[in-house]
Amino acid sequence: MWRGLLLALLLPVAAWGMRPLETPQALPVSGGLVGTAYRAPLPSQPPPFVLPPGDPATLVIIIDDLGNRLKEGRQTVALPGRISVAVLPHTPHGARLAEEAHRAGKDVMLHAPMSTLDHRPLGPGALTNELSQTEFRDTLDAALASVPHVRGVNNHMGSGLTQSPEPMRWLMAELTERQLYFVDSRTHSATVAAAAAAEAGLPHLSRQVFLDNVADPEAIAERFLAAVSQARQRGLAVAIGHPYPETIAFLQAVLPELEAQGIQLATVSEVLGL
Length: 274
Hints:
single chain, alpha/beta, 9-stranded parallel sheet
């Protein structure tokens, strides 16, 4: 009964939309009013959000793909609570959004593009199997330099590269040298990224739930409940979403209600004790 009530309450939050099943591409470039203060619009009469009862737990929420669209990026930065944001390298608004996220107390991550099994376009700063170790390091260096205040890295797509042991060893060695962490977005079940991080002794986490592969309110609500369920079973869960209007509206409505229901939001750095 609670699930039917929850979904009925959340359906008006945003319009229906569909997104691909693999980690999506970055949103297309859009203009924005640069240099002005921004406040995310508050939803009118936020719907009540009641979780099923369960043990207290910690939830990490990462919002990927920031940098190409200023409005959606600022809405993400303005979300309440301890959210982590992953910024694409060499994007028009990436550096500005990283600065704003840092000031807002969010964890800033590099959302590093990595090659896919189906050879999707990756955008600038991509790490691929074709790079030599020196080229790999130089590409990563430039990507990190384009996003200020980076605390860690997660993969943008990467269903191909994250299955390749040698590049993953290179990556973890570079992140260890820079005292950064890694989050495996797990865009393919055969990923060896987390294993490479563990082998290198690098602080790391792995994603359990994608919130918005299908970006409509009902689907997002179901995936969010799955993340909470996993958090309560394991003590911790990592959920990844994207700056879609549907996801932003959902999180604006539900995040302020979580702590009272026993779910503590935390950044990746906090969970890893960094």
